[in-house]
Amino acid sequence: MAVQPVPYMERTRLYYRALGYESDYVWATFADVPFARLHEPLARSKIALLTTASPPDRDNVDSAGIRHVWSGLVAEPPEQPFTDNVAWDKASTHTRDRGSYLPIEVATELAGEGAFAGLAAHFHGIPTEYSQRKTLEVDAPQVLSRLRDDGADAAILCPL
């Protein structure tokens, strides 16, 4: 029996309808892709890791319940970030393997093998919001500023 791809977009539409949303989710599209070529070869580039997990203490959530960008030291990562606030198939899998969505140890090994120059001092947590406006106008500029402060040449998004 041939394996069929998961109809992710259709399943997402049906999921939001089941939650009571009257209009379908509008997928983000960009006429101009907001990415750029590396200025240096990857082997000489410092890489930052981005995750969609929240800190264990959820201190990135304000009094209104809005999640914000957060950062942590690569040298002192949380043992178990908070993941229950993100939608994933909890019946079929788990998030006990932090390396699957914040692969610090594997990235460190790859840097040691020369795949890239090394990791930035901080990793960054990005909220999974349903607001494209908040993502574009608030979260993305904060992440970019933090990446620049760390001297990162590129970032790898490691979503749940």
Describe what you observe in this structure.
The chain is an alpha/beta fold. It has one domain. Helices cover 24% and strands 13% of the residues. The chain has 3 helices and 5 strands, in the order H-E-E-H-E-E-H-E. Strands 1, 2, 3, 4 and 5 form a 5-stranded mixed β-sheet that branches. The two termini are 28 Å apart.
Beta-strand percentage? Answer: 5-15%
Termini separation comes to 28 Å
Instruction: Characterize the overall form.
Output: globular
Mean pLDDT: 88
Give me the count of strands: 5
Backbone CA Rg: 17 Å
- List the total number of helices: 3
Largest sheet properties: 5 strands, mixed
Number of domains: 1
Q: What percent of the residues sit in helical stretches (DSSP H or I)? A: 10-25%
Q: What sequence of helices (H) and strands (E) makes up the elements?
A: HEEHEEHE
Low-confidence stretches: none
Brief overview:
The chain has helices spanning 8-18, 104-112, 132-149, and strands at 46-51, 70-73, 118-119, 122-125, 154-158. It is of the alpha/beta class. The two termini are 28 Å apart.
Topology:
Blueprint: H1 8-18, E1 46-51, E2 70-73, H2 104-112, E3 118-119, E4 122-125, H3 132-149, E5 154-158
Parallel strand pairs: 1-3, 1-4, 1-5
Antiparallel strand pairs: 2-4
Could you list some keywords that capture this structure?
alpha/beta, 13% strand, globular, five-stranded mixed beta sheet, single chain
